[in-house]
Amino acid sequence: MTINRRNFLGATAAMTGAAMLPRAVLAADTIKLGSIVDTSGIFDAYGKPMDMALRLAVNEINGAGGLLGRKIDVMAYDTQSDMALYSQYAQQLTRQDKVDVVHGGILSASREAIRQTMRKTKTLYFYNVQYEGGVCDRNIFCNGLTPAQQAEVLVPWAMKEAGGKKVYTLAADYNYGQITARWIEKYVRDAGGEVLSTDFFPLDVADFGATIAKIQTAAPDLVIAPLVGGAHLSFFRQWAASGMKDKIPLASTTLGVGNEHKVLTPEEGNGIMVAYSYSQDLDTPANTAFKERWSAAYGDPSALHELAISTYYGVHTWAKGVEMAGSVERDAVIAALETGVSYDGPAGKYTVDPKTHHATVDVHLMKFKDQKMDVVETLSQRPPIDTQAVCDLEANPDDNTQYEIQI
């Protein structure tokens, strides 16, 4: 299959007699950063801003002189929301293009489709998306929120806001949704509550009429919905249209991560509770400055979302590791990052946890209001304690497991 998309950012600096140099010498003058993400298809609302954020970070680094005196070239492939293409392009990037690092993947299935290729080819890999936790692999760094950073604070807060202990859960029917639903059940129990039912939905399901009727019969105090993708967005519209939104409060671990709250009308979205590390509406100097840089590069910053920001952090975190190591060689960069590298940006500080290769981050409890995320409370520097419970790369550097954490 032909490559759908391949772009290169950054050019080798002009030099006297460059055209006469051997190709191998010219290649050594640039650092190759691979990107595999869905910039078309049903997940493009997530993937396009991730691609833009990655390129912005690279342009910032190149504009400041590059890394180790070398420019970064981006070698990007659009996986078109097709899981099969992740494996194909992972092979292309690592075996033919021979990149120095790869950033990519959105769904957990896409991460697992390429993670072993990265490990076997000894290509450093950054997964910059919130997920279900438990990946323990020294070759990967995970910047996204895990359930202990997000759901553990969202669930009891939402239950308190709802004023009741009975919860109904709707979840996407794949790894993330299934495991997150189990975490939600644990956190509901920890808060003294009960999950009345958990329903799972394939990603292409868009009719929730029968489910809404079931929820009405069950009469919970709160609905929590880790649903994913454009089809699942239909639930929130149908929920509001049924008149239930103002009767039973909603919370979600996923809604808004791809700016879905901007697609919902205020009548459909107002009051829904979420918890993320980033919102466009964070009123901080760092976020204001970042949005100005984004606007200078792309215009309107309305495309910005959680996954884009995590990707931006991923690139800059990797770059700091390269600078500290004085090399792009995988083991040297990993060792540098394992010193606990931090990067300060629009969402505050992200710090590498050496034990798990996940990030310690700030988390904001928020409610949707008029297509914005209003911050209710900020919880500073939450570590990935769920993954820490099962993963210790300092003690077991050869581990290569995604643990199903016992809940």
Automatic annotation (TrEMBL):
Record-annotated Leucine-binding protein domain positions: 30-370
Gene3D superfamilies linked: 3.40.50.2300
Keywords per UniProt: Signal
Keyword match Signal: yes
Signal keyword on record: yes
Signal sequence range: 1-27
The organism's place on the tree of life at top rank: Bacteria
Cited InterPro entries: Leu-bd (IPR028081), Peripla_BP_I (IPR028082), TAT_signal (IPR006311)
Sequence similarity: Belongs to the leucine-binding protein family.
Name the UniProt record assigns to this protein: Transporter substrate-binding protein
Species of origin: Ruegeria sp. PrR005
Lineage of the species this protein comes from: Bacteria, Pseudomonadati, Pseudomonadota, Alphaproteobacteria, Rhodobacterales
